[in-house]
Structures are given as C-alpha cells and as structure tokens.
Amino acid sequence: MSTRIPKDDFLAHWLVGQAEATDDQAWENREQEDQLRRVVEAAAQLNVPATRSREAAWAALQSRIEAESSPVPVAKVRSFPRLSSLMRVAAAIALLFVAGLLVQRWLGDDAALSAETISKATPAQSSPLTLTLPDASEVVLNDLSAIHYEAASWADGHRSLRLEGEAFFRVKPGSTFSVETELGTVTVRGTSFNVFTRKEKMEVICFSGEVAVSLNGSSEAAYVLTPGEAVRYETGGRPQRYQAEVSAGTPGWSEGIFAFREAPLEQVLEEMERQYEVQLELDPSAADGHFTGTFYVEDAFTTTLANFCKAMGLEAQPLEAGSFKLIPAGHSP
Amino acid sequence: MKPNSEGHLSEAEAFKALFDRYYDSIRNFLYYKSGSIEQAEDLTQEAFLILWKKRDNIDPQKVKSYLYTIANNLFLNEVKHQKVVMKFHQQPVSNATVETPQYLMEEDEFRAKLEAAIAALPEKNREVFLMNRIDKLTYKEIADRLGLSVKAVEKRMHRALQELRNISPRI
Question: Which positions 72-111 of A are in contact with B (Cβ < 8 Å)?
C-alpha cells in the first residue's frame, strides 16, 4: 500500500509529460510505469474498424436528405412529389453558376460559356469534389477536371454532360445518361463508372451495371463493358480492352490513392503534378521506364517523390520553387 | 481557380465540409461508446441528418460540441445496450524486420488483453482515453467537444490509466 494518495489527475499529467517529480510516489515500482507506457503506446496504434468509407457514408446521407426533404406523397393526389425538391436543387446549382459567371465576366473570360451551361471545375491539389446532378446522380471530380451541362435539357430528362479530365460517376437508374469527351462518348442507364480523358488518352472503367463506349476515331460499334471491364484508347492507336480492379467499388483516386501498374513514367509524373501542383521534368534518357506502385496524396510530396525516385533509380534536382528535374541516379554533374 | 472562389460556400457545400471534417471523429466517438461499428456508423448518419435539419437554428461556433451532444443523445436513446466488445484494426507495422513467432504470439496476447481492458473501462473514461489515444485530441480539445472542463477530462483520463496499468505484459 502506498501511503501517499496520488492526485486524482496525476496519470493524465504523467501521460503528457507534465507530472511533478514528487508524484513519482504514485508508482508502486519502476516496472509499473514502463508497463503503462507500453499500454498507452499500443493504444495509440489502434484503428477503429469501418464497414464503409466516408465517401460512401456521404452518398448514403445525401440520398436520405433527398428522400426526407420531399413531401410524403398522399394517395389521392396524383402529382410528382419529388419534382419540387429536384427543382430546388437545379435552381440552387443555377444560382451558383450565375454567381460564377458574373465573376468570369469581370475577368473577361466568358467566351466559351452560354448562359444555360452549368460548369464545375476543380483546381490542382484539391481533394476530390463530389457533385450531385439534377437527377441525383453523383459525380466525383478528380483534380484539374471539369464538367459542363445544360440545366434546361436535364429538366427535360435529357441526361448528358461534357467531361474534361477525370471523374467517377454513380448514375441513378433512369433514362440514358451520357458523358461526352474529346475522344468519345460513354452511355449508360444506371451504373457506376470511371472516365479518364486527358491529352490524347481516354480510359473508361465499369464498376457496376453496363456501360457503352463509342469512340470518335473508331469505326467499330460501341464497346459494351460489364463490371471489371475497361477500355483505353489513344488518338491514332487502337482501342484496347483490359480487366480492371474494381472490387473497392470506387476508383482509388477518389480516396487519395494512386496505383499504377506498368504505367509509362510520363503518366505517373503528370498525376503527381496535378495532385501536388508541382512541375516535373523527366530526363529523356529515363523516359522509357515503366512504374508499378502506389502513391498516397496524404503523404508529403517530398516523400512521394523520394519513393518514386528510389523505385526508378532516379534523382530529383530542384530547378526552382515547386519544379524538379528527374535524372538517372549518379549522373548529377 | 478554386471552384468556390466566387464567394461564400453554399449551404450544401459548407455542410459537406463539416461532414468531411467530423465524420471520422463522431463515428469513432460512437464506437468507443457502443463497441459496435455498425451501430456507430448508423448513429453517425442520424446525427448528421439531424444537424442538417436543424441547420438554421445552430450557432456556427457551437456546431462541433452540438454534434457530440446529438451523437450522445442518440446513443442514450438506443434501447438495447449490449456488453461492449472492442475490436480494432492494427496499423501496419512499418519496420521491415522479421519477427519471431514467439514475439508475434506475445504481441497478439498483449493486444487481446489490451482490447479486453479497454472494453471493461467505464464508458466515460473509455471515450476520453480513446479520443486522446486514437483521435490524437488534446485534453483541451476533448473538453471542448464534450462540453466538459479540462479538469474533468483529466480525471477521467487518470481513472482510465489507473485501470489500464494492471494489464500484465507477460502471460
């Protein structure tokens, strides 16, 4: 038995390194302190399990908000109970857009837009932006990507939008939903799929349902994709079908995970440039390599760059702020 | 250009930002209380739904503690409170050394003991302890979120640690 009664918050102070020296007597012996140290360190390594991602929880919450904000249909009244809330969403988006348009006018950059077009874009180095379309379908936009659509035609049930960059779609069942890109059009009814379209490349991965892809440069009929199937296409090349990993239900990038398999280095560097807002230049002598690996946006850029360089036997030379040249390791002047 | 650089965040966008910021900690908080991840996730959704419905009547300064209050009330309203069993995921160990089977077995047993001891803590002490250890919140932050004094948080922490120092490291 200890004769001295420890203060009733002694251990709380001990943990943050603020216990006073005389409080040593709170310990029965030395070992006891080491033991508790181990316990608190082990507890700090614990992770709470999860049955679904935050992204998925958000999607579920959104549909509940949508459902609860609609008036409950009364049996006798034959009307469209959902229309009012739908119109509200459309109106809100339209208002937002008008505000955006005004700013664009002031900036003198209104050439490409007509008054009915709704545009949403993401900057580099942002977290994926989730948007709800007027039909309650969902779009997750990757960095430096944009969608444009006509609000009026959506209200008429014509679901079509234009995409630049990369986005993941969860489409509400209903009439045909199409995504137009520079290189081709993706058409579905109710499904989830990822579209990547940058520079001269386009890539579509089907996560659920069924997706039809028709390519502008290709004489072939539409490519029909079922879950796990994907097609990629480069201007001038041949469309290529392949199997994609879709078991997670959403593309890795929407969770900040960028996984590559045998990817050309240029493609990996371009993704890093978008995610970290940096400039990366690859020495021509290293341009032929392929990268298999993963980077996580939550890691610092220096960590990601160091890992990448190590894996590829490269060395990063800082050129100016936020700009690097990658050369083969051991060749620095 | 940022998508929202034209002015204030819309109500929906502000709500999304709030959700992203507090979803994990509210879900964890409810897990510490209930020991059931399904229940924690369901109640977290309820809590945000209530927050959305009451959004016009909430002082923006108090949203954080209000969320915890809602979560706590939801938990108290659940009729059935089962005996709490805690099961955590282990973070991947970063050091690349190969551990002996003997060491791994000891680690497993220690972990099981730790989880059992945490589950056996009184709820109020357990949530404070885990908010500090897992969510890495300071006593002050915990006090703010739970609407308690720092002193009260320290007392709960002390009591949790007092219990936990009786875990024996060996079999």
Answer: 92, 96, 99-100, 102-103
The range of the structural domain enclosing residue A281 comes to: 256-328
What is the average pLDDT across B73-80? 74
Beta-bridged to residue A196, according to DSSP, are: A166, A203
Expressed as residue numbers, the domain containing B147 is 101-164
> Is a pLDDT exceeding 70 seen at residue A104?
no
* A window 218-277, beta carbon within 8 A of B: none
Q: Is the dihedral of CA B151, B156, B162, B164 positive or negative?
A: negative
Residue B109 pLDDT greater than 60, yes or no: yes
Contact B1 A96 (CB under 8 A): no
Q: Is the domain of A110 the same as that of A85? A: yes
Question: In chain B, which residue's Cα lies nearest the Cα of A43?
Answer: B133
CA B14 to CA B100: how far, in whole Å? 50
Domain containing residue A143: CATH number: 2.60.120.1440
Mean pLDDT in residue range B121-138: 93
What does the alpha-carbon distance between residue A56 and residue A140 come to, in Å, rounded to a whole number?
Answer: 12
For residue A236, is it within any domain? yes
- Report the candidate in A197, A265, A204, A266 with the shortest Cα–Cα distance to residue A232: A204
pLDDT of residue B118: 93
**B169 in a domain, yes or no?**
no
